[in-house]
């Protein structure tokens, strides 16, 4: 039963990550060092907040991302006075913490509780099996679905495509995909309503979703392998507004799975960004049509060229589903790095140790990096397998073929994602160590730090110091 006397229609909660620490050392995509809290706003929540507020609903945001203990979170949750509570689980690292938030909310309030986000959404039914406290899971994008739920006065409010809910203790998944909002129709993000907004890196969305289908990635599950882009005018007007709030000293992060999928838009945006006189960054693929906008980009305040290259091995790139033409792909990366090295921007490339790695494939990656000295900063991650991705669904076949394995302990089962021993040749621990070593060898310190801090709060000297230590310190315990 919904509490109709509540002060708010909805409270949206951003959970902290990793209050329950993993039993492995930090590494690559497990790069959430104990010393470094994730100091970033949750743009998904902000988008939902902005849209629902524009439709006349009373909504507030509770950001618990900097809490380090369940007890302090519980105290804050006790004060919630809303009809509904929505929790955003971005990654497996905040999933257990999100379930705990649901538990506290159920104990202390009368709100109905739902959950969404890039991790919890695709888990669907599993979330309702994990938690008795959650009433519904929103599998895909949330704006239009939440609007429908908040508007509804009937018991049927969860019967919307892409929603999973409980009825008489039975879990029901409404088939189909929920409606997707057009980014051009969204109002400008209401940044100043985000708690302590000036503490965070300003995020501006360029596009949402991805049309590529890399086998390890979840982007195509939540956005159903579609992409929606803002028009350059809409994007630049929003940036103008954002700069009026955050000022010119901040570096801005432009959110896109791959920037400039429409290269004409990519060029127009780059030309427009120059006029703001700010620093900014984003990500794009090595094989996108960056030739169409790269010079304008490098002349626009763009400070970190961030490429998810993933491997220097043609065989591994094919196995990942990253590209069908690895030679073209790697050739474009070399060309890009050469161009970037003539500018003041940092050239960062991210790598992954994937299923099927052999001594030869790792040698190919190392060779690629050493023959491309224009890359200033490398980051290595062992593969983490997310639920329902092609690599997850085909794992039995891969195990037989390559001798890979998932680390299937209770901790990872509860979070629903798994670190991987990549092949019969290499264990998780070996590639995690190797990744750290390669980062140290092939990254220039300043460039690595510049790249690592681009999504986190930058003016905080403590954060920068901790990022620095993450590169330079030995991250694994030393033998006595
Ligand atoms: C910005 C970003 C961040 C930011 C902000 C994270 C945040 N809290 O949102 C920062 C830098 C903090 C971050 C950190 C991490 N991230 Co990140 N991040 C992204 C990125 C690039 C963009 C996401 C985004 O904001 N999009 C725009 C918003 C509007 O979309 P959205 O978040 O999907 O929100 C919509 C829906 O999901 C839904 N929704 C979201 N919340 C809720 C809540 C409710 C109640 C409802 C109903 C709906 C709903 O509605 C929203 C609007 O439609 C994505 C990749 C991508 N291109 O999407 C990766 C991504 C989400 N991150 C990822 C990862 C792995 C991480 C890290 C582990 C990285 C690391 N090694 O440190 C950490 C973990 C953070 C954590 N809290 O656990 C993975 C998640 C994979 C997974 N399934 O687990 C992604 C998908 C990248 C990838 N392909 O690997 N990340
Ligand atoms: S890894 Fe990047 S390019 Fe590949 S599907 Fe995911 S977001 Fe798209």
Plain-language structure description:
The chain is an alpha/beta fold and 480 residues long. The chain folds into two domains: 8-173, Rossmann fold (3-Layer(aba) Sandwich); 201-476, TIM Barrel. It has 19 helices and 18 strands. The strands form four sheets. The protein has a seven-stranded mixed sheet, with helices on both faces. Helix 1 (43-54) links the parallel strand 1 (8-14) and strand 2. The longest helix has 16 residues, at 326-341. The mean pLDDT is 91. The chain binds cobalamin and iron/sulfur cluster. Iron/sulfur cluster binds at residues 210, 212-214, 217, 219-220, 257-258, 285, 308. Cobalamin binds at residues 17, 29, 31-32, 38, 40, 42-45, 47-48, 86-88, 90-94, 114-119, 121, 138, 141-143, 146, 205, 208, 217-219, 222, 255, 257, 386, 417, 455.
């Amino acid at each position: 039963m919904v509490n109709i006397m509540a002060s708010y229609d909805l409270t949206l909660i951003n959970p902290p990550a990793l209050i329950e620490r993993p039993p492995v050392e930090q590494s690559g995509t497990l790069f959430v060092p104990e010393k470094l809290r994730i100091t970033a706003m949750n743009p998904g929540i902000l988008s939902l907040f902005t849209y629902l507020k524009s439709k006349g609903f009373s909504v507030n945001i509770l950001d618990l991302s900097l809490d380090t203990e369940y007890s302090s979170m519980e105290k804050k949750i006790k004060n919630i006075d809303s009809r509904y509570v929505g929790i955003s689980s971005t990654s497996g690292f905040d999933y257990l913490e999100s379930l705990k938030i649901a538990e506290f909310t159920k104990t202390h309030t009368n709100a109905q509780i739902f959950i969404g986000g890039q991790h919890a959404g695709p888990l669907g039914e599993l979330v309702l099996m994990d938690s008795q406290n959650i009433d519904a899971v929103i599998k895909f994008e949330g704006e239009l679905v939440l609007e429908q739920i908040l508007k509804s006065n009937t018991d049927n409010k969860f019967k919307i495509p892409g929603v999973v809910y409980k009825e008489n203790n039975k879990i029901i998944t409404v088939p189909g995909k929920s409606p997707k909002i057009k980014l051009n129709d969204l109002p400008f993000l209401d940044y100043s309503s985000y708690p302590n907004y000036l503490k965070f890196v300003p995020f501006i969305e360029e596009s949402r979703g991805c049309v590529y289908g890399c086998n390890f990635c979840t982007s195509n599950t939540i956005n159903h392998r579609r992409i929606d882009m803002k028009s350059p005018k809409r994007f630049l007007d929003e940036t103008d507004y954002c700069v009026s709030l955050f000022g010119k000293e901040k570096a801005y992060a432009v959110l896109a799975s791959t920037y400039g999928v429409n290269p004409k838009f990519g060029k127009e945006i780059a030309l427009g960004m120059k006029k703001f006189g700010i620093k900014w960054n984003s990500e794009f693929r090595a094989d996108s049509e960056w030739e169409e906008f790269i010079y304008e980009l490098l002349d626009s305040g763009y400070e970190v060229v961030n490429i998810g290259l993933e491997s220097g091995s043609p065989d591994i790139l094919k196995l990942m589903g990253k590209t069908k033409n690895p030679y073209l792909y790697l050739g474009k990366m070399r060309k890009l790095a050469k161009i970037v090295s003539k500018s003041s921007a940092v050239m960062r490339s991210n790598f992954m140790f994937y299923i099927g790695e052999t001594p030869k494939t790792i040698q190919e990656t190392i060779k690629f990096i050493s023959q491309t000295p224009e890359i200033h900063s490398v980051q290595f991650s062992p593969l983490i397998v997310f639920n329902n991705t092609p690599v997850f669904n085909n794992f039995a076949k891969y195990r037989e073929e390559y001798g890979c394995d998932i680390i299937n302990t209770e901790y990872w089962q509860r979070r629903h994602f798994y670190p991987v021993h990549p092949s019969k040749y290499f264990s998780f621990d070996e590639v995690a160590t190797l990744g750290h070593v390669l980062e140290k060898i092939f990254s220039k310190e300043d460039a690595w730090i510049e790249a690592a801090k681009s999504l986190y709060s930058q003016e905080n000297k403590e954060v920068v110091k901790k990022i620095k230590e993450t590169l330079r310190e030995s991250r694994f315990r030393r033998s006595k």
